[in-house]
From TrEMBL:
Family matches, as PROSITE patterns: MFS
Taxonomic source organism: Deinococcus deserti (strain DSM 17065 / CIP 109153 / LMG 22923 / VCD115)
SUPFAM superfamilies in alphabetical order: MFS general substrate transporter (SSF103473)
Pfam families associated with the record: MFS_1
Molecular functions per Gene Ontology: transmembrane transporter activity
The protein, known as: Putative major facilitator superfamily
Keyword vocabulary terms for this entry: Membrane, Plasmid, Transmembrane, Transmembrane helix
TM stretches of this protein: 28-48, 60-79, 91-109, 115-137, 149-171, 177-196, 243-263, 269-292, 304-321, 327-344, 364-387, 393-413
């Protein structure tokens, strides 16, 4: 097959994947690679970069908790800000503050203080997490939402294919020099993407209504309105149960921050070898997207969550038995973990949005995020403290929590099968 034919076929696949989606979802998906080619790499190598400039495990963990603590504060005002400014405007302003500026700070950081400044700025991203999610999904029909989240997660994972190339550069020039250059390139590239995406998206219907409603309210009144919506969370069927599931998955993800350091320092894999981890994850994700998602979409959401967490527990347990230096076994296990994470995030988010009412979506989704961040604040610092004492001990804790999450998934699935009422 000629290159022209391959390109034509690739475009055909993309068009079929986006067929029937509204404007915002379609254009946000088309723009996502321009963020992901930078975001996936810098997130993956961040612990190694911080280590390379002299930060300890405790400091790296503390930075994670500082970020979460500040994120909690910004999350508390995410709904009022998003409702007053609109999904589109909030996303643009928030992305410039939480990604563009921090990328240039990270590029020159040499101390814990510099990383703390970048962490404070990046915490504004919690507001964007709400506004962008609503901009992406609010106008999408419920039956299509899992597909949209699946495509977004697929793009982010596939862009991890760049990490082996960056790993080759790291092998030649070192972690510090390579990542400083990549942060600068990312700061420029992301800024272009943010402006471009803003130009081709539009305010959602719910966003227009929310802006009109909150325009007449003062800032204090807007926050009080949000708090009233939060207080009514238990009145929405299934929302508390899904919130508990969401919270525990995020907590585990924060603990897993040290996985790359565990693989490098404890299991003795080189940075160049570890650069192939996202490559394997991308392969597994593509396979699951084309084969797994169509099969899982036939199941009730509760049973789907069970399947994803069986895979997650299996991966967490097997990671404890990876032989030091055995590349094949390590890549197989992290591939399994990557696939489980992809499926969990895709169906977790779809299940959560299915439990949110059309009115007050921003307030209730922000409430879930706020509660999640509050409970996850100590996770990174706890992970750093445990890793400092016993690297294997940290991943035993993760395996235990993965077991608890699977039990919660079983419980949610059983409640879902018993009735269509509340799951919690």
């Amino acid at each position: 097959m000629s290159p022209h034919e391959l390109e034509y076929k690739s475009r055909g696949v993309q068009l079929r994947a986006l067929a029937g989606l509204p404007r915002n979802a379609r254009n946000a998906i088309l723009m996502e690679p321009l963020w992901a080619i930078f975001g996936t790499v810098v997130i993956y190598y961040a612990p190694l970069y911080m280590r390379s400039v002299g930060l300890s495990s405790t400091e790296i963990g503390l930075l994670g908790s500082v970020t979460l603590a500040l994120s909690f504060l910004f999350q508390a005002v995410a709904a009022p800000v998003t409702n007053r400014l609109g999904r589109k405007r909030t996303t643009l302003i928030g992305d410039l503050i939480s990604w563009t500026i921090p990328m240039f700070v990270w590029a020159t950081a040499n101390s814990f203080a510099a990383f703390a400044v970048a962490a404070a700025l990046s915490a504004v991203g919690r507001i964007v997490a709400l506004s962008w999610s609503l901009l992406l999904i609010e106008d999408v029909e419920e039956r299509q939402r899992a597909r949209v989240f699946g495509i977004i997660n697929l793009i982010v994972t596939v862009c991890g294919l760049l990490t082996p190339l960056v790993g080759l550069i790291i092998a030649q020039h070192g972690v510090t020099a390579t990542m400083r250059a990549y942060y600068i390139a990312g700061g420029v590239g992301m800024t272009v993407m943010f402006l471009w995406r803003n130009a081709i998206t539009q305010e959602t219907q719910s966003g227009v209504a929310a802006m009109a409603q909150h325009r007449a309210l003062g800032v204090g009144q807007s926050i009080c309105h949000t708090m009233a919506m939060v207080a009514g969370m238990r009145g929405h069927p299934g929302l508390m149960g899904m919130t508990a599931f969401y919270l525990l998955t995020v907590f585990i993800e924060q603990l897993s921050l040290f996985q790359i350091l565990f693989l490098q320092e404890t299991l003795q894999f080189s940075a160049q070898t570890l650069s192939f981890v996202p490559f394997v994850g991308a392969f597994v994700t593509v396979l699951l997207y084309w084969v797994g998602l169509p099969q899982l979409s036939r199941l009730p959401l509760g049973r789907t969550l069970v399947v994803t967490r069986v895979l997650g527990l299996l991966g967490a347990a097997l990671l404890l038995f990876v032989p030091a230096g055995n590349v094949a076994v390590m890549l197989a296990v992290v591939g399994l973990l990557g696939g489980a994470t992809f499926l969990t995030q895709t169906y977790r988010d779809a299940a959560l949005f299915s439990r949110l009412p059309r009115e007050g979506t921003a307030d209730l989704y922000s409430a879930v995020q706020t509660l999640t961040l509050l409970c996850a604040i100590p996770a990174a610092a706890l992970a750093g403290a445990i890793f400092e004492v016993s690297p294997h001990g940290l991943f035993v804790v993760i395996a235990i929590l993965s077991g608890l999450l699977l039990l919660l998934a079983f419980w949610l699935a059983r409640r879902e099968s018993e009735s269509d009422g509340p799951l919690f």
